[in-house]
Amino acid sequence: MNIEIKHIAFGGAEHKKEIELRYKVLRQPLGLNYMQEQLKAEKDEFHFAAFDGDKLVGCLLMKAIGNDEIKMRQVAVDEDDQGKGVGKSLVLFSEKFAAENGFSHITLHARKTAVPFYEKLGYKIVGNEFTEVTLPHFKMKKEKPFV
Ligand SMILES: CC(C)(COP(=O)(O)OP(=O)(O)OC[C@H]1O[C@@H](n2cnc3c(N)ncnc32)[C@H](O)[C@@H]1OP(=O)(O)O)[C@@H](O)C(=O)NCCC(=O)NCCS
Description:
Elements: E1 3-8, H1 13-27, H2 36-40, E2 46-52, E3 55-64, E4 69-77, H3 86-100, E5 105-111, H4 115-120, E6 124-132, E7 135-143
Bound molecules: coenzyme A (COA).
């Protein structure tokens, strides 16, 4: 597997593939879908995707919350490609991006099942468990230097 991580443009063919993957991995199993307004509101976010050749195998979004904080969102890897380092590569790429753009901390809402994945990458739980998209979640945080 030869993985390439790219910053992808909003509204193009790669963005369409990103939404398809997010639906398949993060929404369809819960019987949920994305609202068009939600997707349109992501125009100002940073979209990163992992490619194995032409196949988009993973994605990650980053949303600036202020000058210091950037939120990591919608981390998803195709089921066939999980456990091969794609998620980790996406997180490391986005951390480099956050550092280069002057952000001092990264926050995220982790599904409880994904908490150990983020812990391995240095993220710490902040606060109590809460529910989002019907699932238990924890807020997590990492301060710079990220890598
Ligand atoms: C969670 C997810 C993004 C991880 O991506 P991935 O490509 O499968 O993970 P990687 O192969 O890069 O794993 C990196 C490390 O984390 C570990 N890891 C990955 N997922 C894990 C999990 N759910 N629980 C415990 N450890 C996990 C791996 O074993 C690996 O450990 P190592 O470095 O010691 O070998 C991916 O499995 C996924 O999309 N899951 C379904 C959707 C989801 O839960 N998204 C996150 C929403 S917050």
